[in-house]
TrEMBL record:
SUPFAM superfamilies: PLP-dependent transferases. The keyword Lyase applies. It holds the Pfam family Pyridoxal_deC. InterPro entries: Aromatic_deC (IPR010977), PyrdxlP-dep_de-COase (IPR002129), PyrdxlP-dep_Trfase (IPR015424), PyrdxlP-dep_Trfase_major (IPR015421), PyrdxlP-dep_Trfase_small (IPR015422). Keywords: Decarboxylase, Lyase, Pyridoxal phosphate. This is Pyridoxal phosphate-dependent decarboxylase family protein. Residues 1-22 are annotated as: Disordered. It comes from Microbacterium terregens. The keyword Lyase applies. Belongs to the group II decarboxylase family.
Length: 492
């Protein structure tokens, strides 16, 4: 089913009953006042995000100076609490939803996704099981099917909505660990003590979330096998490492390097890993979404042959936080590793429950904002979103190259741009100047032996005007700190 051809309602379905006017009880009155206050403050904030300085006005200590006091014995009116919260926290908020915020690979929030997230909180459904929460569980199942279709992944894969990319990587590696041990005759339910040693391999540019996930899963940090200049895994190095030992192995590949945006050669790397009997996991926190656009789909050629995938809908898809996605080809293996069973938990033997796909029993209905974003955009809209982010990154890179004394260090293939002056001190000073000035916020980092200011284009609102204002701010910053047009220096 294509998202832009949404089917009509089932003609045989019973129409919903007209919504009755709520009875104005004391509790409802308190909800109404508190939510009205939240609505007012939310719209004030959203109306200011595009133009306000991106940096916070106060640091954490400044916020604590206002809020850090004894709790007190008596409470306060709910609406007054919301007013107090907005007033106290407001000066410490960063405008992360700004179209000129490029830090940490963070997207914004589409209107439909944000509104759906509010409903998720109001509905207060513990979406662990299909039986008690069929409304939200059903919405999540549709969202999961749409995601698999858009990303070009196997349609019968298991999908779990988790907190973020790190928890998605962790969930997938837990399944990978159990599966490779089970294939070697070890029962994972007995734990990993006495189990065969699992080799965990990755490229040199492996993201820290995969490293952390490996530690949590008991695999340790991955052994790195090399990478090219843009961070793509060295496939020959991977083949050599796999040939050194027999035994269970897990290989972590990458869709979208956090600095360059580069994608591993999945066709070759997956083939090499599979020939050695290894499980292949793909960290696609933001880059897996390249599969949703015909223009960028070539970047993930071969990725569907892997065994598991992790992504984060808060990044490229622009839904609110708390929306990672763990995907495993073998749904039964996912349920065997992550599912929980108890006499009091309702279950159907023939259908997996949401808690079979995540390491949680209690959780909010994270997949509902994903459904809302996808329903709002349609498949062509998602492709347009991806293409727009890529266009903005390419435009930034092209115009940055025209600023004397600055270089773009990476091949811009997706949404990442790494900018540097000829001297590391100047690059660091430029990043600090930009963040203090407030028009633009970009992360400082180190890549290939050079200090860089990294621009991660992730917000759906980053349009031509945002690009213009970003380049203008960078040009002003280069002049302000005295960056000179020196001969280029080699990049290691």
């Amino acid at each position: 089913m294509d998202l832009h051809d949404f089917p009509p309602p089932n003609p045989g379905a019973r129409p919903p009953a007209p919504a009755a006017e709520p009875v104005e009880t004391g509790a409802l009155s308190e909800y109404r006042a508190a939510l009205a206050s939240a609505h007012r403050h939310a719209l004030t904030w959203l109306g200011s995000v595009a133009e306000r300085p991106i940096r916070p006005e106060l640091d954490a200590d400044g916020i604590l100076a206002t809020l850090d006091r004894p709790l007190g014995a008596t409470g306060a009116d709910a609406a007054a609490v919301i007013d107090e919260l907005a007033a106290a926290a407001g000066p410490g908020l960063m405008a992360m939803g700004s179209p000129r915020f490029y830090g940490f690979v963070i997207g914004g929030a589409y209107p439909a996704a944000l509104a759906a997230d509010w409903l998720v909180s109001a509905w207060d459904q513990n979406t662990g099981s299909r039986q008690p929460t069929p409304g939200t569980a059903g919405v999540e199942e549709v969202a999961a099917r749409w995601l698999l279709e858009l990303l070009g992944l196997p349609a019968d894969s298991g999908v779990g909505f988790v907190t973020g990319a790190t928890s998605a990587n962790t969930s997938c590696l837990l399944v990978a660990r159990d599966s490779v041990l089970r294939a070697r005759g070890h029962d994972p339910s007995r734990g990993i003590q006495g189990a065969p040693t699992i080799r965990f391999l990755a490229g040199d540019a492996v993201h820290t979330s995969v490293v952390l996930a490996g530690r949590i899963a008991g695999l340790g940090e991955p052994v790195t096998v090399g990478a090219d200049a843009q961070g793509r895994i060295d496939v020959d190095g991977l083949a050599a490492a796999l040939a050194e030992h027999e035994g269970p192995a897990i290989v972590a590949l990458q869709a979208g390097d956090v600095h360059s945006g580069a994608f591993d050669d999945f066709t070759r790397a997956v083939g090499v890993a599979k020939a050695a009997g290894a499980w292949v996991h793909v960290d696609g926190a933001f880059g897996l979404w390249a599969g949703a656009s015909p223009r960028t789909r070539h970047l993930v050629a071969g990725v569907a042959d892997a065994d598991s995938w992790a992504t984060d809908a808060h990044k490229t898809l622009n839904v609110p936080y708390d929306c990672g996605v763990a995907i495993v080809r073998d749904e039964a293996a996912m349920a065997a590793s992550l599912g929980a069973h108890a006499a009091y938990l309702p279950a159907l033997a023939s259908v997996a429950d949401p808690y079979d796909h995540t390491p949680e029993l209690s959780r909010r209905a994270r997949g509902v904002p994903v459904w809302a974003a996808l329903r709002s955009l349609g498949s062509r809209g998602v492709a347009g979103l991806v293409d727009g982010l890529v266009d903005a990154a390419l435009a930034l890179a092209e115009r940055f190259r025209g600023i004397p004394g600055l270089d773009v260090l990476n091949d811009v293939v997706f949404t990442q741009v790494c900018l540097a002056a000829r001297e590391n001190e100047d690059t660091l000073a430029l990043g600090e100047w930009l963040r203090a000035e407030g028009t633009v916020w970009a992360s400082s980092s180190t890549w290939r032996g050079r200090a860089v200011v990294r621009f991660a284009v992730s917000n759906w609102g980053t349009d031509a005007e945002a690009v213009r204002r970003t380049v203008d701010a960078v040009a002003r910053g280069a002049v302000a700190i005295g960056i000179r047009d020196l001969p280029p220096i080699p990049v290691r």
